[in-house]
């Protein structure tokens, strides 16, 4: 990817690695499923798991998925060996690879010789139809889960790990407890490794984003305080363009709503944004009339991303403005 090329070709002689904005949240309950192919969004409703799957059989972490001839999925430890299916974006073809590899090795092979492992419901349906006669009962696909998050709140699935040893189940218990942040190796094709977050390293920033999703649940006042201490302010939406940008961020929240910087003033009998902008653009799901002095506004993270009146003591994720 061009972005990764920029990171490691701009390195200097005395820099071995640098922090990137990827970090891990401990606990297997914090794992999320992703597709290996960037840009393919995971939709849990499209997944057809075998009965009882995914199940982390035997108490082991099973963070990669296979598909069988009936289009059903199973979770397996990523260090198992299976044949696999690659997707080639250039000619939109699916390619059965009759060579058993571990999941990460299969992913590397597909990225080197094609585009990526087969990803998404549409590709899987085509793959099962095309390779149903294969003697192999189970095939790796590009479905994996991990505990890693991007610090800007985005849900990008792209991973560029150095080796299989960086997969969560391959790390020792002590390493999983300390190696929670990702760095890029500036001298080795920009591959990633995990390290202790307290280690001092150079790092990369980017500044084309206007907003950041904070995946922490706070009440409205706490959200305002956090944004003002760490960024600029709780987000204000004054146009359709800003609404669309914010709702894209909101899709990756882990609460049903996210706080916006809009609050009702009993003294003035009006709604106001924290940045003192007038309420010109509106996206209400309900009436704005109120008799309650403790109301603020939260956007739903799904559906039409409408705005709802909420008691300001409720606990939601929130979005901060960066400028």
Q: What layout of secondary structure does this protein have?
A:
Layout: H1 2-9, E1 17-24, E2 32-35, E3 64-68, E4 73-76, E5 82-88, E6 93-101, H2 103-113, E7 116-117, H3 121-131, E8 138-146, E9 148-150, H4 173-178, E10 179-185, E11 192-196, E12 211-218, H5 220-230, E13 233-234, H6 240-250, E14 257-265, E15 270-273, E16 295-300, E17 307-311, E18 316-321
Parallel strand pairs: 5-8, 14-18
Antiparallel strand pairs: 1-9, 1-10, 2-8, 3-4, 3-8, 5-6, 5-7, 10-11, 12-18, 13-18, 14-15, 14-16, 16-17
Q: How many domain modules?
A: 2
Encode the helix/strand succession as letters: HEEEEEEHEHEEHEEEHEHEEEEE
Task: Estimate the mean pLDDT confidence.
Answer: 85
Strand content: 25-35%
The helix count comes to 6
Name the poorly predicted regions: 1-12
* Major sheet summary line: 7 strands, mixed
The Cα radius of gyration reads 22 Å
What global shape is seen? Answer: globular
Termini, distance in Å?
28 Å
Structural class: alpha+beta
Percent in helix:
10-25%
Number of strands: 18
Protein name: C-type lectin domain-containing protein
Pfam families: Lectin_C
Domain C-type lectin: 1-87, 82-206, 206-321
């Amino acid at each position: 990817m061009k972005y990764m090329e920029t990171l490691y070709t701009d390195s200097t002689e005395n820099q071995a690695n640098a922090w990137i904005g990827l970090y891990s949240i401990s606990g297997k309950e914090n794992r999320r499923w992703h597709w290996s192919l960037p840009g393919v969004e995971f939709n849990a409703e499209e997944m057809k798991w075998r009965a009882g799957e995914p199940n982390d059989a035997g108490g082991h972490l099973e963070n990669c998925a296979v598909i069988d001839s009936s289009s059903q999925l199973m979770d397996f430890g990523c260090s198992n060996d299976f044949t696999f299916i690659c997707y080639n974006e250039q000619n939109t073809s699916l390619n059965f690879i009759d060579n058993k590899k571990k999941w990460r090795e299969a992913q590397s092979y597909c990225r080197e010789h094609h585009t990526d492992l087969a990803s998404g419901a549409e590709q899987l349906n085509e793959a099962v139809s095309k390779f149903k006669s294969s003697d192999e009962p189970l095939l790796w696909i590009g479905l994996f889960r991990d505990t890693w998050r991007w610090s800007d709140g985005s849900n990008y699935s792209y991973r560029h790990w150095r080796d299989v040893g960086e997969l969560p189940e391959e790390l020792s218990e002590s390493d999983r407890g300390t190696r929670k942040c990702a760095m890029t190796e500036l001298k080795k094709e920009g591959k990633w490794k995990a390290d202790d977050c307290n280690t001092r390293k150079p790092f990369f920033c980017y500044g084309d984003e206007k907003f950041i999703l904070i995946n922490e649940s706070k009440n409205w006042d706490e959200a305002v305080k956090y944004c003002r201490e760490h960024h600029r302010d709780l987000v204000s939406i004054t146009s359709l363009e800003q609404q669309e940008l914010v709702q894209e961020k909101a899709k990756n929240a882990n609460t049903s709503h996210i706080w916006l910087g809009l609050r009702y003033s009993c003294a003035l009998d009006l709604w106001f944004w924290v940045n003192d902008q007038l309420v010109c653009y509106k996206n209400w799901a309900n009436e704005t009339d109120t008799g309650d002095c403790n109301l603020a506004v939260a956007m739903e993270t799904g559906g039409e991303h409408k705005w709802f009146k909420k008691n300001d003591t409720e606990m939601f994720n929130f979005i901060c403005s960066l400028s």
